[in-house]
Amino acid sequence: MIITLLDWMLVILILIFGARISYTDFKRNKIYNKDLLLLLIFSLIIICIQDVIFFMNYGKIFLLPKHVLRGILGISIGFLFWIMGLWAPADGKLFGVLSFVIPGRFLVVTNNSEMLSLLSNILVLISIAIIIPNITKLDKKDLNQIKKILNPKSISFSLIGVFGLLWILQWIMSLLRINGNIILTAIILTFIIGFFRVVFKLKFKVLIFLLFFLRLFLDFPNYLSLQEMFKMLKVFVVYILLRMIILEGIFNKNIAYKKVDELKIGDYLAMVPVKENGKINLKRINFFSLFNYLSTALGFEEYEIIGNYDQSIGLESENIEVIKKIFKEKGTTEVPVFKTMPFAPYIVLGFVIAIICKGDGFILLGIFIKTILWKIGLLKI
What we know:
It is a single chain. By secondary structure, the chain is mostly helical. The protein folds into three domains: 2-109 and 347-369, no CATH class; 139-250, no CATH class; 255-338, no CATH class. It is built from 14 helices and six strands. The longest helix has 27 residues, at 2-28.
């Protein structure tokens, strides 16, 4: 009874601090370290009290190691998203702290994939927030890019890639005892494909066809079952959407124009000076483009960004004057700058969904929809 009450006190802490952190991020574009530290201290006190009760009754410490493990996994995921340029460092720290605080009883649905399922909650919310406001802002170039992705040749190759890689991914996830829902599986698949595209370049196609033929012969006839085919189709559809959002950055339209002299530390540039074939040029970049970020971060591009500009940090005191000078030399008066998106509200909301649904809210949403369809006779289970 007392343990349950203390768990709900942790939930109240998440709601109170989550509301404050979301507000400061939305209004001031800032997550304060003191808020994260206070949330961590208060929650640690409550968790220690719970473990004292456990030790008095059962002679062992039970909860703190589990919270610490979730916190380490959470901060690791946050760090990974930071170095890929998808989150700011503060967003990564917030995900890590909330991963530490959330009681395990609210994650029972997802078992060993707790942090990944929480992440899928958040990424779905962020994707919706990116797509809906920007659908009407798509220009001719974006529509041509979408047509290129959806043409028969591209769709066929993507389907072949999903077919082969999904087989390997499912095998790895089963070994690690990770319960992968459709959205989570598609997210991991998208990042793998993005990484392989950058590292292997032209050999990427050879790798994809190799995996395709391996599964075609070694996994026969498992992939011919209706259940497996339907699962692959659902993963494929989600992957195509994620490819547009994450790999290609098509829906990223949050751009404003600033005069060169008005650029300040922390601004995220949508156009950067690069050295290419011995010449200095200005190149447009996609902030949410994983493919673009990995290409430059891993050194696979044929150009070098001047001033060691890092997309995950923005302009710094060490490079701002150099970059400003180049813009002026190129005759550029206004520079496209990304309007930063407040991720904290979506991160907090993702955890609230987990608390309400005891795990992955989007799994339960799917179960609910399937149950309704079954009740009205449109689906056979």
